[in-house]
Write a structure and sequence with these properties.
Elements: H1 2-13, E1 34-36, E2 40-46, E3 49-52, E4 67-79, E5 82-89, E6 95-96, E7 98-100, E8 108-109, E9 112-115, E10 122-127, E11 142-148, E12 154-165
Antiparallel strand pairs: 1-12, 2-12, 3-11, 4-10, 4-12, 5-6, 5-9, 5-11, 7-8, 7-10
Length: about 170
């Protein structure tokens, strides 16, 4: 009887010490950590306007952090139709995709459409490389191009903030 009491107490004491159940990590392969650089602002006018970031450092000052993402904020959107904005890596002309934060169901699209009904502020991210561990960053300036769909005209304010990947990097002085 005394042994049963001891076993019962031990089982209660060690209840949380069993091996954890193997579950897939929802963040496996994702690197959601960046250090923001200095933002740049400009205006895009449709049809046929382009903005290229010119001041983005390819690595964060005083570190080995590589440029890997741009956070883009479109505001003051005015249009008489639909404007289409496309993103390119300026270094090699690769078309880049937007991650639109307005709708969690939409992950990435090759183009971004700004509608008159979407007036206000729209935030998106543009990634220069895949979001997986072990993928090397591919730093580049960002080129944004706007066109009016059909005969549409319009304009929008744009703020672009470079993001430097910090996954697996130990920051000194942090």
């Amino acid at each position: 009887m005394r042994g049963l009491v001891i076993l019962s107490l031990l089982s209660i004491a060690f209840a949380g010490c069993t091996a954890p159940e193997e579950q897939p990590d929802p963040l496996f392969g994702v690197c959601p950590q960046w250090l923001d650089g200095e933002p740049e602002s400009g205006r895009l006018d449709a049809p046929g306007s382009t903005i290229t970031t010119a001041n983005a450092s390819m690595s964060h000052v005083g570190s080995d952090l590589a440029l890997d993402r741009y956070h883009v904020v479109f505001s003051d959107i005015e249009t008489d139709g639909t404007m289409e904005v496309k993103a390119y890596a300026d270094a090699d002309g690769r078309a880049l995709r937007f991650t639109d934060h307005r709708d969690p169901a939409v992950t990435r699209t090759p183009t971004f459409l700004a509608f008159d009904a979407a007036s206000g502020t729209v935030e998106v991210d543009v990634y220069l490389t895949a979001l997986t561990h072990g993928t090397a960053a591919s730093p580049s300036d960002l080129r944004l191009e706007v066109t009016g769909v059909g005969n549409a005209t319009g304009s929008m304010q744009v703020q672009v903030t470079p993001g430097y990947r910090v996954c697996g990097v130990v920051l000194s002085g942090a």
